[in-house]
Each structure stands twice: as C-alpha cells, then as structure tokens.
C-alpha cells in the first residue's frame, strides 16, 4: 500500500476541462471532505466507474462545479482507488482544485508516478509502461500504432513465451545435474534443442526489427546541404508547403540552422536547412557554415542540393568531398532553367532527383524517392509483425542471444553441463530485464522521468 498522490493530468493552460487525478488508499476519504454531490450520496454508496455531479469546496468556499469519476481498486489505472475530478479548464481553477486535494492529505505526485504504480502494482509490465510514454510522445500514426501493440502486451507475451521455453530446458538440466546417478546420457533431448533454436531465432528477429522501429518512432535527421544560393531554403519551404525559411537571391542568406519535422508517409523526417557552404570572411556566415559541416556529420541522411542551371564548380566539389557515407540523395534544383551538366565529379552520389522549387516540378516524386530510399524494403508488410523500438529492449535481447550462443557452444564442444545452467540463468534474467521483472530503482527513475506529471 502506498500513500495517496494527486496531480493535474491535463496540459497547463486554458481549456474546456481540466482533470485532477488522485490515487491511493485515502483517495475516497479525501474526496468525502471536499465534494458535495448533487445526489447527496456518500462516496461509499457511489458505484465504481460512475461520474457524479456536484460542488467541490474547501469548507465554506466553493472551488468549482465538477464531475467526479469514482474508480475503485483493483480495476483502475494504478490498481488503487482512484478519483478523477473534471473541473473547468484554466490555470487558476485546476490549480485550486489540486491545492484543495493536497490540503486534505494527498501528496503531489512525482513525474510518471501513476504509471510507475501501475507497474509496481503489477497491472502492466515495463514494456507497457514504456509504451504509454511512446504513445504520448508519438509523432506519427504509425509510431503510435506500434506503441499501442506494445501497450496491448504483444512484446510482454512474446517474452513470456520465450521464458517458458527456456524454463523447460532449465528444468531438464537441473534434473541431470541433481541426479547424476540416473545416468542421463543425452545432455539435451531434441525437443529442448528446438526450444533453444526458437528462442535464438525470435530474439534475432526482434533485434533485427529495432532499426525499423527506431526509424518509425524517432524518424530520421536529414540535413539539406549545398553551396550558397542553390535553393536549399526553397526546398525546405516546398516540402513544408509554407514560407518557413527566408529565401533571397543573395548567396549566404541562411545563417543559422532551421529545423522542422514533417510526416513522410508515417516516418517523422527531421528536416534541417543549413547555411550554404563556401569560403567566407563574414564572421556570422562562417559560424553558420561550421554548423552546417557539423550537421553533415551528425545527420543520418543528406539532401545534397546543386544548381541545375549552372555548371558544377569547385564549391560543389568541395562539399562532395566531405560526404562520408552512402546516405545521400542528390537534388538537382532549378531545372526550369536547365543547363546540361556533367555529374561525373560528384560520383559519390548514386541517386539524383531533378526538381524546380520555383515551378513546383518534381517535389512529390522527390518525396516518394526519399521515402523509398530510407525504407529500402516494404515497411507496410513488416508493420504487422512485432517490432521493437526501444534500445533498452535491444540491449537486453542481445544478452539473451549471446547466452543462447554460449549454450550451443557448450553442447557442441562437450563442456560440463553446469555451464549450460549458468547461461540459461543469464538468458532468463536478460528476458526479465525487458519486462522489468528484474529492474533497479535507477532504471525505473530513468524511464519514468520522461513522463508528464499526472500520468
Ligand atoms: N529559377 C529558379 N530559381 C530558384 C529555384 N529555387 C530557388 N531559386 C532561387 O534561388 C535563389 C536562392 O534560393 P535559396 O532557397 O535562398 O537558396 P539557399 O540554398 O537557401 O541559399 P543560402 O541560404 O544563401 O545558402 C532565390 O532567388 C530563389 O528564388 C528554382 O527552382 N528555379
Ligand atoms: Mg538558405
């Protein structure tokens, strides 16, 4: 049993309604003291999952006219008794409602404490708690739909299946180790080897799904680079379909980094417009160029823009030399005043797209090409299967995989059986880390600090 916590669960600001949430053993006692229901019922007479109209007060002072939801343990978000007070939205009223609740004995909750209780009280596992956070922070429908699968318990169930298979193996090993006199020859019968193979294959698939999961969840940091005046800012504006960045005919217009997120068929693309790179004496422009170069290193995708109305020059070639890896798409802009240009000096770039931001030619085709470039395979097809999106899960599953690998090695080289027992425990423990059956306070603090108050 934990103490009673309360917080405002709706965003700060003016709105139609604000919600103050209470959870814990004294939730109803506190409510009894500050709520006068229109029905004149006692709180204890109110049924669970009912909404009750009345006045919230502090002795003689009326705080607000409210609707109160009564949620009785254990079928609640935290598995504790809970109360949700729907009051008028707005800074003052919601704050006053909360203040009153705190005055009568609740403690202000910490960030993410409601969800933390849901976890500690065993209603959800850690993967589901993390899914709640991902849903709140979700940038696209696709990423939210992955998180919803996780919240539903898909990953939790998968891990439970794997653990069950490993426990069968462990049971057998224990018998062999405990009763050597039985003289069990075969260290592992075939069906148990199958168990190990299945765990191996599944962890491998899950680990392999992470890159895709991360892409859907976090998107791709994409820098638009090129020499001055080629149309980088115009390109950003075209994709955003608004005049976000300043565009002029003067080379060196963009001085600072401009960052915007767009939704490219469900992938959040973090687009970064940069200062055109060239040699300059201008201090401010120089600083902008340094940032551009840094972005070229940091970003996961580069859109390298050149001016299609002019021949390639030393400045284009200098930028081209700084391109490190494969993740670059070449954009030939200004094809409305097209010149025949020879792309041979820019041989690192394998994919070229022709556009005109001025005449709005090729923009949608460009977006499609960027999408297929970053997806590389059909994401629609795989989105049905289980995809992990969390580095913590990936790291733990890698430990599982290593442990299973060790077991196979022990079997193949005829090493003593007790080694298998050690690795089996490691495999089981790392699976328990994913779901949070094994977790430290530090880890929980780390996960829940990213939540909002009142969630
Ligand atoms: N003809 C033509 N002109 C364009 C096109 N796209 C951009 N421009 C012009 O090119 C000039 C430079 O455009 P910007 O978008 O400011 O170029 P930039 O690469 O951001 O330049 P810096 O910020 O200085 O590095 C402006 O005068 C634009 O109107 C195009 O497709 N066709
Ligand atoms: Mg610019």
Structural class: alpha/beta
> What ligands can be seen in this structure?
guanosine-5'-triphosphate, magnesium ion
Unreliable spans are none
The named CATH superfamily of the largest domain:
P-loop containing nucleotide triphosphate hydrolases
Largest sheet: 7 strands, mixed
Biggest sheet strand line-up = 3-4-5-6-2-1-7
Order of helices and strands: EEHEEEEHEHHHHHEHEEHEHEEHHHHH
Number of strands: 13
Give an overview in words:
It is a single chain. The relative contact order is 0.12. The model has no long low-confidence stretch (mean pLDDT 93). The protein folds into 3 domains: 120 residues, Probable tRNA modification gtpase trme, domain 1 (Gyrase A, domain 2); 131 residues, Four Helix Bundle (Hemerythrin (Met), subunit A); 151 residues, 3-Layer(aba) Sandwich (Rossmann fold). The strands form 2 sheets. It has a 7-stranded mixed beta sheet with strand order 3-4-5-6-2-1-7, with helices on one face. The longest helix has 29 residues. β4 and β5 form a beta hairpin. The chain has 455 residues and is an alpha/beta fold. It is built from 15 helices and 13 strands. The structure holds guanosine-5'-triphosphate and magnesium ion. Magnesium ion (MG) binds next to α8.
């Amino acid at each position: 049993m934990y103490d009673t916590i309360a917080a405002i669960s709706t965003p700060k600001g003016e709105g139609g309604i604000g919600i103050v949430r209470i959870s814990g053993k004294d939730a109803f006692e506190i409510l009894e003291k500050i709520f006068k229901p229109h029905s004149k019922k006692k709180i204890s007479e109110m049924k669970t999952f009912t909404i009750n109209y009345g006045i919230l007060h502090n002795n003689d002072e009326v705080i607000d006219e409210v609707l109160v939801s009564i949620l009785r343990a254990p079928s609640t978000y935290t598995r504790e008794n809970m109360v949700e007070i729907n009051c008028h939205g707005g800074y003052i009223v919601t704050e006053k409602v909360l203040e009153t609740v705190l005055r009568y004995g609740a403690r202000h909750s910490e960030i993410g404490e409601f969800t933390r209780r849901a976890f500690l009280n065993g209603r959800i596992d850690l993967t589901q708690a993390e899914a709640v956070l991902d849903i709140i922070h979700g940038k696209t429908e696709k990423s939210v739909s992955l998180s919803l699968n996780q919240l539903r318990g898909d990953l939790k169930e998968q891990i439970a299946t794997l653990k069950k298979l490993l426990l069968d193996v462990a049971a057998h090993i224990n018998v062999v180790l405990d009763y050597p006199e039985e003289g069990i020859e075969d260290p592992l019968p075939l069906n148990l080897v199958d168990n190990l193979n299945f765990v191996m294959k599944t962890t491998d698939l899950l680990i392999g799904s992470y890159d895709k999961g991360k892409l859907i969840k976090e998107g791709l940091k994409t820098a638009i680079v090129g020499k001055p005046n080629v149309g980088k800012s115009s390109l950003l504006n075209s994709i955003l379909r608004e005049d976000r960045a300043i565009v002029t005919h003067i080379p060196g217009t963009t001085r600072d980094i401009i960052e915007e997120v767009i939704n490219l068929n469900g992938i959040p693309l973090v687009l970064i417009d940069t200062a055109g790179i060239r040699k300059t004496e201008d201090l401010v422009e120089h600083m902008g160029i340094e940032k551009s170069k840094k972005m070229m290193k940091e970003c996961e995708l580069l859109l390298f823009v050149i001016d299609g109305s002019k021949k390639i020059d030393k400045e284009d070639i200098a930028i081209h030399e700084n391109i490190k890896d494969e993740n670059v798409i070449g954009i030939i802009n200004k094809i409305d005043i097209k010149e025949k240009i020879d792309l041979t000096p820019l041989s690192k770039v394998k994919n070229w797209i022709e556009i005109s931001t001025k005449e709005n030619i090729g923009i949608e085709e460009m977006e499609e090409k960027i999408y297929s470039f970053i997806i590389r395979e059909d994401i629609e097809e795989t989105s049905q299967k289980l995809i992990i999106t969390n580095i913590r899960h990936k790291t733990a599953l890698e430990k599982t995989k290593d442990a299973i690998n060790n077991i196979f090695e022990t079997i193949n080289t005829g090493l003593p059986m007790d080694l298998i027992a050690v690795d089996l425990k490691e495999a089981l423990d790392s699976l328990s880390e994913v779901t949070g059956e094994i977790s430290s306070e530090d880890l929980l603090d780390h996960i829940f600090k990213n939540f909002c108050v009142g969630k």
